[in-house]
Amino acid sequence: MRMSNMLIATLREVPAEAEIASHQLMLRAGLIRKMSSGIYNHLPLGVKVLKNVEEIIREEMEAKGAQELLCSAIIPAELWQESGRWDAYGAEMFRVKDRGNRDYCLGPTHEEVFTSTVKNEIKSYKQLPINLYQIQTKYRDERRPRFGVMRSREFIMKDAYSFDKDQEGLDIAFNKMHDAYVNIFNRCGLDAKCVEADSGAIGGSNSAEFMVKSEVGEDDIVFCTACDYAANIEKAEAIAEKAEEEALQEMKKVETPNSRTIEEVSEFLNVDTKKTVKTLLYNVDGKTVAVLVRGDREVNEVKVANASNATGDIELASHEQVMEATNAQTGFAGPVGIKVDLLLVDEEVKNMHNIIVGANETGYHLTGVNYGRDFEGVVGDFRNVEEGEKCPKCGGKITIAKGTEVGHIFKLGTKYSESMNAKFIDENGKEQPFIMGCYGIGVTRTVASIIEQHHDENGIIWPLEVAPYKVSVIAVNSKDEEQMKIAEEIYNNLRSLGLDVLFDDRKERAGVKFKDAELMGIPMRVVVGKKITDGEVEFRLRTSSDNEIIKIDEVEGRIRTEFEKNGLKLR
Amino acid sequence: MRMSNMLIATLREVPAEAEIASHQLMLRAGLIRKMSSGIYNHLPLGVKVLKNVEEIIREEMEAKGAQELLCSAIIPAELWQESGRWDAYGAEMFRVKDRGNRDYCLGPTHEEVFTSTVKNEIKSYKQLPINLYQIQTKYRDERRPRFGVMRSREFIMKDAYSFDKDQEGLDIAFNKMHDAYVNIFNRCGLDAKCVEADSGAIGGSNSAEFMVKSEVGEDDIVFCTACDYAANIEKAEAIAEKAEEEALQEMKKVETPNSRTIEEVSEFLNVDTKKTVKTLLYNVDGKTVAVLVRGDREVNEVKVANASNATGDIELASHEQVMEATNAQTGFAGPVGIKVDLLLVDEEVKNMHNIIVGANETGYHLTGVNYGRDFEGVVGDFRNVEEGEKCPKCGGKITIAKGTEVGHIFKLGTKYSESMNAKFIDENGKEQPFIMGCYGIGVTRTVASIIEQHHDENGIIWPLEVAPYKVSVIAVNSKDEEQMKIAEEIYNNLRSLGLDVLFDDRKERAGVKFKDAELMGIPMRVVVGKKITDGEVEFRLRTSSDNEIIKIDEVEGRIRTEFEKNGLKLR
């Protein structure tokens, strides 16, 4: 591409709207522009990167035998009613009516559509296994779109769905997708870690997320510093501390006026927060669920939701619900005599002695309370793991980092095939529901994540395979005919190798050209300057600050070397 | 692709829902499935063809210097309010509200978005010309979706928009796009004819459509049998017949009870319909417009709309409007004494003598009426051309055929840049509106049109470049190990050439395999059967019914020959 003909949309200033590096650089390098809140248009440079990432995904998916479909974004409500998700999906789903007043949504995901397609097309176990995918636009009306395309309302996703006749088949499909994702993110130059994730009611190791460490990530990822254990904090198993033995005290009611929070109560009674237990009340599908964790711990709402079989998100109980369960103002709830539908007790709490809890009476707490003697409940793991705790796998030390999810692989089992009555005939002539898996990659988000991991103060530093252009050819002085002629020859030669090359033929100062090439993150640059009188040009990698002086006829070879280093072929 | 692993969705029966060949074959060969009225999912075979067509479009667009963007499908209402089209677009536009109750549409086209983008990015004439395109999903809530993807509500379109500093630049851009379209449709194997089309208020030869002749086409295309004249009937110029000289009669009112239509009046008065004139009344943006054409002619509503500066579609006047204009029941309107906002007279009517028209009185007509003496109006071309008339260009004979529009190129001028205040600074430092063109190709419709032109009773016959797979390798007896081994070797060898090949390794009868390959339209097939004992296989083109017996080691060469014949390269 000759830059004199190109829509160059680089910006020198950092746009005020952008908080994070990838968002700033996607705007500054001219990859995207905002259309509306959480809705972006891709400019030419952005489209080229998207297409490169899509091509990598396609190749790796097809290498695992997946076949590409393309489904409509508009989906009739009936399909979602069949699966029961039309009402459950809530405000995040864009809904639309046609001229006949029929209900549709803009697909936020396509489980229903793929299940229905396979239900119609596949009748026999002989046609299984099958894995179908698409690279397609998704719609989610996020409450809080942010960070550019990192969390947007219209975005490109690769979603795949596997259909098997049995659990073994699903396991194979799941592992294949795991391997494909490892390859995809490697080729994208992304350091993405596969971590255990929550799989809701299905349980087991059925869900894994590919996470990119990022300071602006919205998830907390738990890593072991000693072994390879890694899990989303939603899922990460907490090991209950054993409390030291001590003599059981008598339970006593003490006045704690105006002390509602753990901190206030600990201070008022002059005890460590670790001796207190907090009782949180949740509204789960209309029922009241109480959760007890040690005073200094955090409740893990996903674990609570799973333990209480919630159909959707759970929320803290209303003031009225608290009053009803405890006969007291908020801040004085405790397990003794509480009226709830379910009482969940974190294992750590069960191990503690002589704990301090709310008295279910405004202005009062109980001391010397003990599990078993004074109250009982469903014991389990209901809290978040914390930095420095023990790894559930090896006992090593846990560390926690922020992460962004770029991929998700999930064993669905028969959730959709059962609800949508999608069945095949097995070897014995019996109807069986398809055993399904689903596998997503956020394509637009992957691009942003690559930039998060590959940039410096001057701009993007594209990994070679996803780079929109691989080489930038720059004539230092565009008025120098000889420089322009040689630059053009190099450009034409590189293009003839099937390479995406930029030729900066603009009548701009060399400094402007260098700055744009760096901002756009072009991996290699060839600078044609005064040294051509000696038959030499400058070659520089975007990752380096060193100029290599090479002969003009060495340019192709030098570029070939970089391709080989990256495991890529040039024509 | 090994067919044993493939989602094969071929159907033996012709689906009842499909009326036309392409729709039937896209269903039968397993390219598409219906999701909802006018909304389709593409199955793997369909996706492959789409991608091939898209790739051709991309290459030809980029060869003309166009750059690819990717804009959101969701577009905020404000942009459409700026251009004035939010209200004008009517029921065909899908509208959607987000959780904040803000208005958006699902883009039926993207003039507003591209104009706004260029307005923000391009400031100077130095950055012009520029041509930006996208291949993207469009939404139009058609009143009557039909013929499968031929007229659907969600479809893929290539839309491009050119921005120039002056009219000469636009002319160049328009011609480049014309040439690109010729190349695109040629490579798709489509016989698409470029015809003059209506360009609304802008006028001139500013709009051209690429039309595919088709019995099920929704447009009438006017061709000259002698020269290269071709136009959409909406646009095609009608040459007014000169009437023979005759003495002017006196105007007389005659009773014509129950005679309302031209046929009834002609019969009642025993005259040729060519002596009568029909007066049709239209509602144009609330105003009443009367149009006079010879009794046997058809009014051209596009010409009427243009002449009356209609902002949108026009419709026949209501009974109340007719009563108000004529003081009579419908069927008795005429030009003498009619009360309308505009009276349009087809040139042919002006030339006629002693015509018969409605008397604007229920039950009466006038005879001996003459233009100039008895009534006057705006004279022009307001009728449809008819088969056998004279070509406006060379005087040759006109013929009319049905056609389907697959592409449209259009000089917009400053329509959008003016209304959206999109301006650049010209050579003299003055602000000027961009001079725009827009250029569309219906991608999904192009695929259907290719099938309309390339099929037989056994299935699709893909032109080589768009074919989802180029060759099908079939072992006659899948239980014969030697046949399977050689078939597999041929398959692997052809794949190593970078070729999309199908290997029918299914345990099916040979007849089933042949039928599927023909239905899917695979251009070449290699049949491995008993002749392998002589080192021979059968080669057959989908376009032929002859089997060529060739040596196994001649297969590659034979296929190379076909590629060369089609101007294509093989690795």
Automatic annotation (TrEMBL), chains A, B:
Superkingdom of the organism of origin: Bacteria
InterPro entries: aa-tRNA-synt_IIb (IPR002314), aa-tRNA-synth_II (IPR006195), aa-tRNA-synth_II/BPL/LPL (IPR045864), Anticodon-bd (IPR004154), Anticodon-bd_dom_sf (IPR036621), Pro-tRNA-ligase_IIa (IPR002316), Pro-tRNA-synth_IIa_bac-type (IPR004500), Pro-tRNA-Synthase_IIa_type1 (IPR023717)
Protein family (similarity comment): Belongs to the class-II aminoacyl-tRNA synthetase family. ProS type 1 subfamily.
Localization per Swiss-Prot or TrEMBL: Cytoplasm
Annotated keywords: Aminoacyl-tRNA synthetase, ATP-binding, Cytoplasm, Ligase, Nucleotide-binding, Protein biosynthesis
Role played: Catalyzes the attachment of proline to tRNA(Pro) in a two-step reaction: proline is first activated by ATP to form Pro-AMP and then transferred to the acceptor end of tRNA(Pro). As ProRS can inadvertently accommodate and process non-cognate amino acids such as alanine and cysteine, to avoid such errors it has two additional distinct editing activities against alanine. One activity is designated as 'pretransfer' editing and involves the tRNA(Pro)-independent hydrolysis of activated Ala-AMP.
Cellular component GO terms held in the UniProt record: cytosol
Subunit structure: Homodimer.
Enzyme class per UniProt: ligase
Protein name from the UniProt record: Proline--tRNA ligase
Domain notes: Consists of three domains: the N-terminal catalytic domain, the editing domain and the C-terminal anticodon-binding domain.
Catalyzed reactions per annotation: tRNA(Pro) + L-proline + ATP = L-prolyl-tRNA(Pro) + AMP + diphosphate
Swiss-Prot/TrEMBL GO biological process terms: prolyl-tRNA aminoacylation
Molecular function as annotated in GO: aminoacyl-tRNA deacylase activity; ATP binding; catalytic activity, acting on a protein; proline-tRNA ligase activity; transferase activity
PANTHER family: MITOCHONDRIAL RIBOSOME PROTEIN L39/PROLYL-TRNA LIGASE FAMILY MEMBER, PROLINE--TRNA LIGASE
Main subcellular localisation: cytoplasm
Pfam family, one: tRNA-synt_2b
Domain Aminoacyl-transfer RNA synthetases class-II family profile: 46-463
Organism: Clostridium thermobutyricum
EC number(s) on file: 6.1.1.15
